[in-house]
Design a protein that fits this description.
By secondary structure, the protein is of the alpha+beta class. The chain has a single domain, classed as 2-Layer Sandwich (60s Ribosomal Protein L30, Chain: A). The chain is 19% helix and 35% strand. The chain has two helices and nine strands. The protein has helices at residues 55-68, 96-110, and strands at 3-7, 12-17, 21-27, 32-38, 77-82, 114-120, 126-131, 137-141, 146-148. The strands form two sheets. It has a five-stranded mixed β-sheet with strand order 1-4-3-5-6, with helices on one face. A four-stranded antiparallel β-sheet has the order 2-7-8-9, with no helix packed on it. Helix 1 packs parallel to helix 2. The longest helix has 15 residues, at 96-110. It is globular, with a radius of gyration of 14 Å. The chain starts with a strand and ends with a strand. The relative contact order is 0.24.
Length: 149
Protein backbone atom coordinates (compact mmCIF):
# COMPACT_ATOMS: atom_id res chain seq x y z
CA UNK A 1 0.00 0.00 0.00
CA UNK A 2 1.21 3.51 -0.86
CA UNK A 3 4.02 2.05 -2.98
CA UNK A 4 4.96 1.28 -6.54
CA UNK A 5 7.45 -0.99 -8.24
CA UNK A 6 9.02 -0.67 -11.67
CA UNK A 7 10.70 -3.74 -13.16
CA UNK A 8 12.17 -4.95 -16.42
CA UNK A 9 12.46 -8.63 -15.57
CA UNK A 10 9.02 -9.99 -16.44
CA UNK A 11 7.80 -10.13 -12.84
CA UNK A 12 4.22 -10.57 -11.73
CA UNK A 13 3.42 -7.90 -9.14
CA UNK A 14 0.49 -8.35 -6.76
CA UNK A 15 -1.50 -5.97 -4.56
CA UNK A 16 -4.91 -5.84 -2.91
CA UNK A 17 -7.10 -2.75 -3.08
CA UNK A 18 -10.40 -1.52 -1.69
CA UNK A 19 -10.91 2.22 -2.11
CA UNK A 20 -7.29 2.51 -3.24
CA UNK A 21 -6.48 2.25 -6.95
CA UNK A 22 -3.96 -0.10 -8.54
CA UNK A 23 -2.29 1.36 -11.61
CA UNK A 24 -0.51 -0.97 -14.01
CA UNK A 25 1.75 0.68 -16.57
CA UNK A 26 3.60 -1.15 -19.32
CA UNK A 27 5.82 -0.47 -22.29
CA UNK A 28 5.42 -3.89 -23.91
CA UNK A 29 8.04 -3.21 -26.57
CA UNK A 30 10.69 -2.58 -23.89
CA UNK A 31 9.29 -5.21 -21.50
CA UNK A 32 9.14 -2.68 -18.68
CA UNK A 33 6.19 -2.48 -16.33
CA UNK A 34 5.09 -0.90 -13.09
CA UNK A 35 2.38 -1.42 -10.52
CA UNK A 36 1.32 1.33 -8.16
CA UNK A 37 -1.08 1.24 -5.20
CA UNK A 38 -2.34 4.76 -4.49
CA UNK A 39 -4.37 5.60 -1.41
CA UNK A 40 -5.35 9.22 -2.05
CA UNK A 41 -5.88 11.46 -5.09
CA UNK A 42 -3.37 14.21 -4.31
CA UNK A 43 -0.89 15.47 -1.78
CA UNK A 44 -2.38 19.00 -1.69
CA UNK A 45 1.03 20.65 -1.63
CA UNK A 46 2.08 18.87 1.55
CA UNK A 47 5.68 17.74 1.82
CA UNK A 48 5.67 13.96 1.56
CA UNK A 49 8.29 11.26 1.60
CA UNK A 50 5.69 8.64 0.60
CA UNK A 51 5.52 9.32 -3.13
CA UNK A 52 3.45 6.19 -3.83
CA UNK A 53 0.62 7.25 -1.53
CA UNK A 54 -0.86 9.88 -3.85
CA UNK A 55 -1.97 9.58 -7.48
CA UNK A 56 -0.44 12.96 -8.35
CA UNK A 57 3.01 11.96 -7.09
CA UNK A 58 3.03 8.20 -7.80
CA UNK A 59 2.11 8.27 -11.49
CA UNK A 60 4.78 10.82 -12.54
CA UNK A 61 7.39 8.94 -10.47
CA UNK A 62 6.40 5.62 -12.04
CA UNK A 63 6.70 7.06 -15.55
CA UNK A 64 10.06 8.68 -14.76
CA UNK A 65 11.49 5.44 -13.36
CA UNK A 66 10.19 3.47 -16.34
CA UNK A 67 11.88 5.92 -18.70
CA UNK A 68 15.13 5.61 -16.73
CA UNK A 69 14.98 1.84 -17.36
CA UNK A 70 14.44 2.35 -21.10
CA UNK A 71 10.68 2.75 -21.58
CA UNK A 72 9.31 5.42 -23.89
CA UNK A 73 6.35 7.45 -22.66
CA UNK A 74 4.65 7.32 -26.07
CA UNK A 75 4.49 3.50 -25.79
CA UNK A 76 3.30 3.29 -22.18
CA UNK A 77 -0.25 1.98 -21.69
CA UNK A 78 -2.27 1.64 -18.49
CA UNK A 79 -4.80 -0.58 -16.78
CA UNK A 80 -6.48 0.38 -13.52
CA UNK A 81 -8.51 -1.40 -10.87
CA UNK A 82 -10.03 -0.59 -7.49
CA UNK A 83 -11.59 2.59 -6.19
CA UNK A 84 -14.41 0.77 -4.44
CA UNK A 85 -16.93 2.42 -2.17
CA UNK A 86 -16.16 0.26 0.83
CA UNK A 87 -18.53 1.93 3.30
CA UNK A 88 -22.04 3.23 2.77
CA UNK A 89 -22.75 6.40 4.71
CA UNK A 90 -26.28 7.50 3.77
CA UNK A 91 -25.82 11.08 4.97
CA UNK A 92 -22.58 11.53 3.06
CA UNK A 93 -22.01 10.99 -0.65
CA UNK A 94 -18.23 11.25 -0.15
CA UNK A 95 -16.33 8.34 -1.66
CA UNK A 96 -12.55 8.35 -1.61
CA UNK A 97 -12.66 5.51 -4.14
CA UNK A 98 -14.45 7.70 -6.70
CA UNK A 99 -12.03 10.56 -6.09
CA UNK A 100 -9.08 8.20 -6.54
CA UNK A 101 -10.46 6.88 -9.84
CA UNK A 102 -11.10 10.40 -11.12
CA UNK A 103 -7.59 11.57 -10.17
CA UNK A 104 -5.87 8.55 -11.74
CA UNK A 105 -7.79 8.94 -15.01
CA UNK A 106 -7.06 12.69 -15.12
CA UNK A 107 -3.32 12.30 -14.51
CA UNK A 108 -2.94 9.49 -17.04
CA UNK A 109 -4.76 11.63 -19.61
CA UNK A 110 -2.47 14.60 -18.85
CA UNK A 111 0.53 12.36 -19.60
CA UNK A 112 -1.07 11.08 -22.80
CA UNK A 113 -1.26 7.52 -21.49
CA UNK A 114 -4.13 5.45 -22.85
CA UNK A 115 -6.11 3.33 -20.40
CA UNK A 116 -6.63 -0.02 -22.13
CA UNK A 117 -8.82 -1.54 -19.44
CA UNK A 118 -10.30 -0.89 -16.05
CA UNK A 119 -12.31 -2.57 -13.33
CA UNK A 120 -13.26 0.19 -10.92
CA UNK A 121 -15.91 1.30 -8.46
CA UNK A 122 -18.54 -1.02 -7.03
CA UNK A 123 -18.39 -2.03 -3.34
CA UNK A 124 -15.85 -4.83 -3.02
CA UNK A 125 -12.11 -5.29 -2.78
CA UNK A 126 -9.88 -6.80 -5.43
CA UNK A 127 -6.57 -8.62 -5.60
CA UNK A 128 -4.56 -7.55 -8.63
CA UNK A 129 -1.86 -9.53 -10.45
CA UNK A 130 0.00 -7.41 -12.99
CA UNK A 131 2.29 -9.07 -15.53
CA UNK A 132 4.91 -6.40 -16.05
CA UNK A 133 6.31 -7.46 -19.41
CA UNK A 134 2.95 -7.84 -21.19
CA UNK A 135 0.54 -5.62 -19.26
CA UNK A 136 -1.81 -8.50 -18.53
CA UNK A 137 -3.85 -7.71 -15.42
CA UNK A 138 -5.75 -10.43 -13.58
CA UNK A 139 -8.33 -9.31 -11.04
CA UNK A 140 -9.69 -11.53 -8.30
CA UNK A 141 -12.73 -9.93 -6.81
CA UNK A 142 -13.79 -10.39 -3.22
CA UNK A 143 -16.97 -12.03 -4.52
CA UNK A 144 -14.79 -14.71 -6.21
CA UNK A 145 -15.43 -13.54 -9.79
CA UNK A 146 -12.27 -13.50 -11.90
CA UNK A 147 -11.72 -10.89 -14.60
CA UNK A 148 -8.78 -10.41 -16.94
CA UNK A 149 -7.97 -7.14 -18.68
Amino acid sequence: MAEFRVVNNGSVLVTTVGSCVAIGLVDPEAGIGALGHVMLPNHNGKQTEIIGKYADTAIPAMIKEMEMKGARKDRIKAKIAGGAKMFNFPSNSFSIGEKNIEAVRKILKEYGIEVLGEDVGENYGRTIEFHTSTGRMVIKKANKVLKEL
